[in-house]
Amino acid sequence: MYYIFLTYLMNNYEYSKIAIPIKSKGRIYNEKTSELRPPYQRDRDRVIHSTAFRRLKHKTQVFVNTDIDYYRTRITHSLEVSQIARTFAKIFNLNEDLCETLSLAHDLGHPPFGHAGEEILDECMQNFYGFDHNIQTLRIVTTLENKYYKFKGLNLTLETLDGLVKHNGPVNDKIKYDNILGKNIFKNKINFLNSPSLESQFSSISDDIAYNSHDLQDGIRAGLFKLDDLSDIPIISEIIYKHKKKYKSKEKELILNEVIRDIINTMVKDVIRNTKNNLIAEKPKKIKDIYKSNIRLVEFSQKMQEFDTEIKYFLKTNMYKHKLVFNKARYGMKILNTLFKKVINNPKKYIKNKFFYNFSKERMVCDFIAGMTDRYAINLYNSIK
């Protein structure tokens, strides 16, 4: 039945009317269109070629990148999110290039040492509107990437910028955005109160699916918990039971890969079914109906939302607060806190990029530290502590 439904969707172009059109509304700064690439493919290419994207290779997802190479980093996570989002886009006949671009770009603003790094930078900047990795992503693509004669940033399409602004939904309070990014940086071309596009919503939920399932996999590989420890979580328990008969005849790593694959498939199928039902109920006819929708159209079913909550709680309790991970996170926070205090006292000693001097001293130092890889931060800390 499910595959009949997939075939129906992929051959039915009803959903294309509510997709972001191939022709973009434009960019903040006018540019000639490309004869070789459509606008969202250009956006994707600009993200991939950016300095910030390359640095994700050496930024923490959960485990500090200097530990063991096969744990996920921000760049592998972003690639996995992109793969899931493109699947959704193809099924619903949406803009695949835009889904991919949003997925690849959504974590550009993450500092070293993951959420621990974000927490300490926000604390260091508490008197200067704080630090938020989603806003930092926008700061990177609108201001900090410096590759073009005619403008700062990457000058991405308005649709891509809109999707990045609303990665977590509409924005009701612009104060932090205005103060961190600069007032009217989008030249009144982004409506913060509108709902995000379907492409943005699928990118966001693909982020959840990817980090839930893959953090479970990395946690088991790291020996923080065992596969059987997940047996009390509904849905996962059914998947594990299905694979238990393989326990003696197959390698544990192979069984783990199969279980994680089944978890991802289960979550993806649930999103497809639930989104289809939401679209049928809401009956959007064009893209404007998506922007004006009062509900999040791309969402898990109630049962899967509860499952999602249980996974997050399990990971928080058994992984993120595990002594091994927690101690590394605290050490990362100590490193960034020390660096902030040292650099703020003499920025020109450490920051050679004169472009940063266009901003307040505090924001300049914050940008400098947020852009570091884990390894660079550790090495600089060891040289100045």
Mean of pLDDT: 91
Number of helices: 18
In which range does the helix fraction lie?
Answer: 55-70%
* Radius of gyration computed on alpha carbons: 22 Å
**How many E strands?**
0
- State the CATH superfamily name: Hypothetical protein af1432
Reported CATH architecture: Orthogonal Bundle
Uncertain segments are 1-15
Number of domains: 1
Shape: globular
- Could you give a short account of the major beta sheet? none
Q: Can you write the helix and strand succession as a string?
A: HHHHHHHHHHHHHHHHHH
Please state the structural category. mainly alpha
Give the CATH topology: Hypothetical protein af1432
Beta-strand fraction estimate? under 5%
**For the record, what CATH class applies?**
Mainly Alpha
Provide an overview of this structure.
- There is one protein chain.
- The chain has 385 residues and is mainly alpha-helical.
- The chain has a single domain, classed as Hypothetical protein af1432.
- The protein has 18 helices and no strands.
- The protein has helices at residues 2-10, 39-48, 51-55, 74-91, 96-105, 114-124, 133-144, 158-165, 175-181, 198-221, 236-243, 252-282, 287-291, 302-320, 323-345, 347-350, 361-370, 374-384.
- α4 (74-91) runs antiparallel to α5 and α5 (96-105) packs across α10.
- It starts with a helix and ends with a helix.
